[in-house]
């Protein structure tokens, strides 16, 4: 009989200890140890040797042997810097129901249509469920093979039988290796299963895509080593109540990580959004106080986003401060600077701030836009419709220029905006757009006609 022993393994670094402790001795993380059962009578498959790779002079290595192969999904290829690289392992993480399986099924169907054989392994759904989704997405193709399997050895046998160019495993938390006695999804199982698949990918030149679950904190479930052994980590994000989905590269060994892919969830699957600014501004209501258009940067992609604020009277001892799509700490900072440096107070008033469309804005370039939206709602004074606002605010109330100013203003000019409120040292706007330069937050509030010191700029 197999001899089992209880061990406590860290979910972050994989360190094992015989009894539970509050702090991991390996990575010093707190409350990261979970109990698992180890089979001491078997040798871990991670210790088994694979094929030996003979060393060669670095000058003789063919750098063009493994080139990215497009998936046929434009936004996905943008994030992957051209496509999937043979021999690479890509991990796609996201919340349940966000659309990971839908996107990958569309991608592998496009790859199969280009003449490459693809194996899609669903460890969570039956073949019939995947077939129904494929029919809805028009993703049926004879070169797209489907298996409903949870055992890694059986998956590798299918790879030997079919010899695909791309393998998708959905998901890595639900497959298991029989050599490990712990349950599927445990630290040991995820690490061991991923290690076997990575070894197979490197030996065969096989592109492997793994689907990963996320924790309630938003991080990938499983050991941290999972992110280290794969070549690419993609994060699929979005608000369930909105159709917009964003794909980012958290790690990418074959290209940059500053690209952003945008998709719209429809009944026919994921559709790429080539012009996100028009999507965000499609339902904009003009002439309403508390609404400001901010040119943001997502990676190297400029986007115009509407920021809204609502200031309402409150009888509560501690008025509410709510931020959706914005950093709540940054909102508190801007409220303090508005009060102390610009004379716009919010005593006995609830404050609500929102980035429209389900997008999340974390860059300080939106500071001036958020502050003016708050001041606009506070005095019920609308911001001009043809104005965009961009700038970082310091604690002294000063305005600082932001990176990629030219690209931000060029995107605003493309969509018909004719004026931009920017810091004094900001770059010149494109032809046809007027720059209104201010040095402090108080000057900016006055320049847009809010309060008693309204400027004549408008």
TrEMBL record:
Residue span(s) of domain RecA family profile: 65-214
A GO BP annotation: recombinational repair
UniProt entry keywords in alphabetical sequence: ATP-binding, DNA damage, DNA repair, DNA-binding, Hydrolase, Metal-binding, Nucleotide-binding, Stress response, Zinc, Zinc-finger
GO cellular component terms attached to this protein's record: cytosol
GO molecular function: ATP binding; ATP-dependent DNA damage sensor activity; damaged DNA binding; hydrolase activity; zinc ion binding
Record InterPro entries: AAA+_ATPase, DNA_repair_RadA, P-loop_NTPase, RecA_ATP-bd, Ribosomal_Su5_D2-typ_SF, Ribsml_uS5_D2-typ_fold_subgr, Rubredoxin_2
Transmembrane segments: none
Keyword DNA-binding assigned: yes
Gene3D superfamilies reported in the protein's UniProt record: 3.30.230.10, P-loop containing nucleotide triphosphate hydrolases
One Pfam family recorded for the sequence: Zn_ribbon_LapB
Protein name, UniProt field: Unannotated protein
């Amino acid at each position: 009989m197999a001899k089992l022993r209880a061990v406590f393994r860290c979910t972050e670094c994989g360190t094992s200890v015989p009894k539970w402790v509050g702090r991991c001795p390996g990575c010093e993380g707190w409350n990261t140890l979970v109990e698992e059962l180890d089979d001491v009578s078997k040798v871990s498959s991670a210790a088994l040797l694979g094929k030996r790779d003979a060393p060669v002079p670095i000058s003789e290595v063919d750098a063009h042997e493994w080139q990215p192969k497009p998936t046929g999904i434009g936004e996905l290829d943008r994030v992957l810097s051209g496509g999937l690289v043979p021999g690479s392992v890509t991990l796609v993480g996201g919340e349940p129901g966000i659309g990971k399986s839908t996107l990958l099924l569309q991608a592998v169907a496009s790859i199969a249509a280009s003449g490459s054989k693809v194996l899609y392994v669903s460890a969570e759904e039956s073949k019939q469920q995947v077939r129904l989704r494929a029919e809805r997405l028009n993703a049926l193709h004879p070169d797209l093979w489907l298996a409903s399997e949870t055992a890694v050895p059986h998956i590798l046998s299918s790879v030997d039988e079919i010899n695909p160019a791309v393998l998708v495993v959905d998901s890595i938390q639900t497959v298991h290796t029989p050599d490990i006695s712990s349950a599927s999804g445990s630290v040991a199982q995820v690490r061991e299963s991923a290690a076997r698949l990575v070894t197979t990918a490197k030996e065969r030149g096989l592109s492997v895509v793994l689907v990963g679950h996320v924790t309630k904190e938003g991080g990938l479930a499983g050991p941290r080593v999972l992110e280290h052994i794969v070549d690419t980590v993609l994060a699929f994000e979005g608000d369930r109540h909105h159709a917009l989905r964003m794909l980012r590269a958290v790690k990418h060994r074959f290209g940059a990580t500053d690209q952003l892919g945008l998709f719209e969830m429809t009944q026919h699957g994921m559709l790429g959004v080539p012009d996100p600014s028009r999507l965000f501004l499609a339902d904009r209501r003009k002439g309403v106080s508390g609404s400001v258009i901010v040119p943001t940067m997502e990676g190297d992609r400029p986007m115009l986003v509407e920021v809204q604020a609502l200031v309402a009277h409150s009888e509560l001892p501690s008025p509410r401060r709510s931020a959706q799509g914005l950093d709540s700490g940054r909102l508190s900072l801007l409220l303090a600077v508005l009060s102390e440096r610009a004379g716009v107070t919010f005593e006995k008033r609830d404050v609500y701030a929102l980035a429209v469309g389900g997008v999340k804005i974390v860059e300080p370039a939106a500071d001036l836009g958020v502050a003016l939206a708050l001041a606009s709602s506070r005095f019920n004074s609308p911001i001009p419709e043809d104005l965009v606002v961009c700038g970082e605010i310091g604690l002294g109330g000063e305005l600082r220029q932001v990176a990629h100013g030219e690209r931000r203003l060029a995107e605003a000019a493309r969509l018909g905006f004719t004026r931009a409120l920017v810091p004094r040292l900001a770059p010149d706007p494109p032809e046809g757009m007027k720059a209104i330069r201010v040095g402090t937050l108080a000057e900016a509030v006055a320049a847009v006609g809010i309060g008693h010191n309204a400027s004549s700029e408008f």
